[in-house]
Design brief:
Elements: H1 3-6, E1 21-24, H2 28-39, E2 44-47, H3 56-65, E3 69-73, H4 82-95, E4 99-104, H5 106-121, H6 127-132, E5 153-158, E6 169-174, E7 179-184, E8 192-195, H7 205-223, H8 230-252, H9 257-272, H10 282-294, H11 298-328, H12 335-345, H13 362-369, H14 385-395
Parallel strand pairs: 1-8, 2-3, 2-4, 4-5, 5-8
Antiparallel strand pairs: 6-7
Helix pairs in contact: 2-3, 4-5, 7-8, 7-9, 7-11, 8-9, 10-11, 10-13, 11-12, 11-14, 13-14
């Protein structure tokens, strides 16, 4: 009898995305210009939010791109309403754009990924088709077709810590139903990510810090998963250590660019575990629904949800939570309380009621959340809307 017949061997697949390089330590406009020249792009479309209008970052980017700059779409709204994707895809097609530069937070970068998908799929395309693509299976990059090379390349220049720049999927919201759907394809991943901490200075400090709590959520939910992976664990615990030091440093001194860069690098580590197939759970799932239903930013949903989810799950993954605390060198509290204290120390809200979530909406949010993939991977099984509602009420 061999080992395989007596032991349960962990199984899994680690997948690399089409990300080619992560550039940090140089001015973002030079890095973007170098990337465009290296790839031979001629017609660059910049994707951004309304906040970018009149910003120093956008002005510098226009100058750096010179004749390669074809236009800008600064109309991406939070949670990526599908109309934004449609309008930007039409604009990209009219410009015959061959490269997208996504400048902004997670919504902007998700929008760029969805725009690339829509343009490649061919215009005109019924927007409903985009919302129907909810398959999270990663297409093996080695098996992609030649047509995939025709997709718009994306260079992501993040200004927050959402980590969207490192994934191959995007959330797109249907405002009429107040639901967020996931669209995914291997070639949606940005090919180049440029990290410049000076860019994050344009984002209000509370928004930046809250996006850092989202990065903490990425790391923690994978660390306490019942199906962990050594690669994911190693990256996630280091990300958690870095964030627990760098976020308070930014809170104390918002101009500390070194701390901001540490946050950016930690955000990268925090989401990299997803490539090992380790799933997030109820905190992410409920956050997706809260974003679409109540308009709450994802970072803020993590501020209010992660601790209650950890406490609700503790009877099923208590040993995993204890290992995280041990790795952090903390012995006088539990993981849920540690997260809550860290969030509070950053001056951020820790309850849904502080985020103006109407308690009467909780049952509807709970019901909608059952369709999010994260609910199927939560350590403690969520069998009904009643379970989801219990978490939300703890968080409220």
């Amino acid at each position: 009898m061999n080992w395989h017949e007596t032991q349960s061997m962990p199984t899994g697949t680690y997948r690399h995305t089409l990300l080619e390089r992560v550039v940090h330590g140089q001015p973002f406009e030079k890095a973007v210009a170098d990337e465009v020249l290296a790839t031979g792009a001629k017609r660059v479309l910049v994707i951004a939010s309304p906040r970018a209008h009149g910003s120093d970052a956008l002005a510098r980017l226009r100058v750096a791109l010179g004749d390669h700059f074809s236009g800008e779409f600064c109309q991406v709204l939070p949670h990526v309403p599908v109309e934004c994707v449609r309008d930007a895809a039409v604009w990209a097609t009219q410009l015959n754009a061959d490269h997208l530069v996504a400048l902004g937070g997670g919504s902007v970068i998700d929008a760029a990924k969805a725009i690339s998908l829509l343009v490649w799929s061919g215009m005109p395309l019924q927007v409903a088709q985009l919302l129907d693509q909810q398959d999270l299976r990663l297409v093996d990059p080695s098996q992609r077709s030649r047509d995939d090379e025709k997709r718009l390349r994306i260079t992501a220049v993040p200004q927050t810590l959402s980590g969207a720049e490192f994934t191959w999927f995007a959330g797109v919201t249907d405002p009429s139903r107040k639901v967020k759907n996931i669209v995914a394809h291997a070639t949606m991943a940005p090919r180049c990510v440029i990290l410049d901490p000076s860019l994050t200075l344009e984002i209000p400090v509370p928004i930046f810090l809250a996006s850092g709590v989202k990065a903490i959520d990425h790391a923690v939910e994978r660390l306490v998963s019942l199906h962990s992976h050594p690669m994911s664990d190693a990256l996630s615990i280091h990300a958690l250590r870095m964030l627990s030091q760098a976020l308070p440093a930014v809170h104390s001194n918002p101009g500390d660019l070194m701390a901001r860069q540490q946050c950016q690098l930690a955000s990268w580590l925090s989401i990299a575990g997803g490539a090992a197939g380790v799933k997030t759970g109820a905190s992410h799932a409920l956050g997706h629904i809260l974003g679409a239903h109540s308009g709450v930013a994802h970072g803020l949903t993590s501020c209010a949800l992660l601790s209650p989810v950890l406490r609700w799950n503790k009877g099923h993954n208590g040993s995993q939570q204890c290992r995280v605390m041990s790795a952090l060198g903390v012995s006088n509290t539990d993981l849920g309380s540690w997260v809550e204290r860290l969030v509070s120390s950053l001056g951020l809200p820790t309850r849904l009621r502080e985020l103006n979530v109407d308690k009467r909406d909780l049952p509807d949010i709970a019901q909608k959340s059952l369709h999010d993939p994260g609910m199927h991977h939560n350590p403690r099984p969520i069998r009904s809307a009643t379970d989801a509602l219990e978490i939300l009420e703890h968080a409220w």
